[in-house]
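seq as requested:
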Amino acid sequence: MRAAGAVLGLLAVASCAGGYGGPVHVLDCGRELYGHGEGYDERARTCLADEHGRGSRARFTTTLLTIEGDPITYAVTTAPDGLVVEVDSRDKFGYQGTATVRCTELRRVQGDRVRFVLSPCAHDRFREISF
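struct tokens:
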């Protein structure tokens, strides 16, 4: 009887592994360094849009360079309830610093290259993010 109780206890513990509080898998769609027409990664951008459309968790990071060469990085993580964007801006003529921004929708804008508009965003400085 005691052995049966021990086995049931181990099964209960094993069934919780990876459940609530366990690790969450986030697909890494990739990174791009996109500036002055170079470094665009359509595969990584398509991955982000596709996974977001499925309601899956995915991450994509893009670093855009201003005309002066100052980097602005957007690390976007999708989740079933929206998107989280970690912004790291070193723009000497604009916003400088870091921010975590929550956005509701990702809209894919198709042109000669895939672009995204994230909105509405819940942040004083960032109501909409496009890249």
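Confidence is low (pLDDT under 50) at residues 1-19.
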